[in-house]
Specification:
Blueprint: E1 2-6, H1 16-29, E2 33-36, H2 47-57, E3 62-68, H3 76-89, E4 94-98, H4 104-108, H5 117-132, E5 151-154, H6 158-167, E6 170-173, H7 178-194, E7 202-209, H8 215-226, H9 232-239, H10 245-257, E8 262-267, H11 273-282
Parallel strand pairs: 1-2, 1-8, 2-3, 3-4, 4-5, 5-6, 6-7, 7-8
Helix pairs in contact: 1-2, 1-11, 2-3, 3-5, 6-7, 7-10, 8-9
């Protein structure tokens, strides 16, 4: 199983120099993917801009939006141009993870109807591919991507999983119990086959990690704020953070056994030294 690492763009107050060093060190340590989360109404960096900065200081690591809330972006051609630009800047290392989203204020801030986010995401996926292939109206929007940009779809709802089976290279789970993950792999694989897809879908999952002194307190402060809109579920997420090396190892082993192809570990702080603590366990 590959181990990706989250770029802490949603940690409030993260310094830009920290994020650049974080990206450089993640590349050097051997993580498979540098991943970003997406929020509009929060103290966070735009994830496409952040990945463009990361592209300039990395050489081999994949760059992935896991996930991009593409449905709240008002202009599909502009989004297509931005993503293709990052792909070209990185030499074809971009993977675009997409999901419909679950915070109404992100959509309201952009003047986009939250209730139509699923249908808008479907239209966005079609529109992105059309622009990247040189079509659309008007045609000729560039740059062309360095290659075929993979789409990776997230979300737990039946509609989200069907969308992933139709359009994606696989499915991204937003996290949860490793014990339940194998059942989700089976459900998604069945949907994949129903769509007439060949080969094996690429399965991913996300998890939060916060190692070292004060790790639990740091994670709790961040996640209760970031997921405040979820109410009591935010407490559940904060309680499930991997704040000990043994817990991180168990989680990695559990996802690998359940059929996960890549686990994205998102730190709850922006200090690049967190990467060394994670790598000691995850990349051993």
């Amino acid at each position: 199983m590959d181990i990706g690492i989250g770029l802490p763009t949603t940690v409030p107050g993260a310094d830009g120099r920290q994020l650049v060093e974080f990206a450089r060190r993640a590349d050097q340590l051997g993580f498979s993917t540098l991943a970003t989360l997406d929020r509009m109404v929060y103290d966070s960096y735009d994830n496409i801009v952040a990945l463009a900065a990361a592209a300039a200081v990395t050489q081999r690591i994949k760059l992935a939006t896991t996930i991009l809330l593409a449905a709240y972006r008002p202009s599909i051609p502009e989004l297509a141009k931005q993503l293709a630009s990052v792909d070209r800047l990185s030499g074809g290392r971009l993977v675009v993870g997409l999901a419909a989203g679950g915070r109404e204020d992100d959509f309201r801030a952009n003047g986009v109807d939250y209730r139509r986010r699923g249908r808008r995401l479907d239209a966005t996926i079609s529109g992105l591919r059309e622009v990247w292939s040189g079509g659309g109206d008007p045609s000729g929007i560039g740059p062309a991507p360095a290659g075929d940009i993979p789409l990776w779809i997230g979300g737990h709802s039946p509609a989200a999983m069907r969308r992933a089976a139709r359009h994606g290279i696989g499915w991204i789970s937003p996290g949860g119990s490793t014990a339940a993950y194998s059942d989700l792999v089976g459900r998604f694989t069945a949907l994949w086959r129903e769509q007439g897809r060949e080969g094996r879908p690429r399965m991913a999952a996300l998890g939060y990690v916060s190692l070292g002194p004060g790790g639990s307190e740091r994670a709790r402060s961040y996640l209760l704020d970031y997921y405040a809109y979820m109410g009591q579920k935010a407490e559940f997420l904060a309680a499930g953070v991997m704040s000990e090396e043994a817990a991180l190892r168990r989680t990695i082993d559990g996802y690998a056994a359940a059929g996960c192809d890549e686990l994205m570990l998102f730190p709850c702080g922006a200090d690049p030294d967190q990467l060394d603590l994670i790598a000691k366990v995850a990349l051993a």
